[in-house]
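Lab meeting, item 3. Inverse folding demo.
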């Protein structure tokens, strides 16, 4: 969080000569920074809960709850039951999330599916990637990928859009 600057005014023994036209003190304001104005910074020494690492280097990363896969190419009229029926054969599904377009009410074209174990999620990726769901080919990959520390990983085929040329050129 950002630290806030606070002015603390001492107004107990102020005479008329120490006040300006707006009623504020001229000389007794002290500026203090931070939350609680304490001298010690406990945030710097804080320890946070983390998930134990199951290996080092790049590869799939476990979420807090389980192993999540990302399914793209989902038909816009697909229902949660269609996706569940397709992916339940690979293991017990803990959670499915289908994002809907607010304007049309249809599926946006992707799904997040959570499995309890790594083996179930890995099997779903290997066997369902490139398969058919309601007449459309779906692509399946890990939702979270651990990087090697050199920066964020990008999905293959993903590219950034550049800026449009200005109309002056």
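The presenter then showed the designed sequence:
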């Amino acid at each position: 969080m950002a630290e806030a600057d606070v002015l603390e005014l001492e107004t107990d023994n102020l005479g008329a000569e120490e006040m300006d036209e707006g009623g504020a003190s001229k000389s007794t304001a002290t500026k203090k920074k931070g939350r609680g104005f304490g001298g010690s910074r406990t945030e710097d020494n804080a320890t946070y809960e983390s998930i134990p690492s199951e290996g080092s280097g790049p590869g799939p990363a476990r979420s807090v709850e389980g192993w999540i896969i990302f399914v793209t190419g989902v038909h816009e009229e697909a229902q949660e039951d269609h996706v569940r029926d397709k992916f339940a054969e690979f293991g017990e599904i803990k959670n499915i999330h289908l994002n809907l377009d607010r304007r049309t009410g249809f599926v946006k074209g992707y799904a997040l599916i959570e499995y309890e174990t790594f083996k179930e999620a890995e099997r779903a990726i290997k066997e369902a990637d490139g398969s058919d769901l309601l007449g459309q080919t779906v692509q399946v990959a890990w939702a979270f990928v651990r990087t090697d520390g050199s920066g964020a990983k990008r999905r293959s085929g993903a590219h950034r859009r550049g800026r449009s040329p200005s109309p002056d050129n």
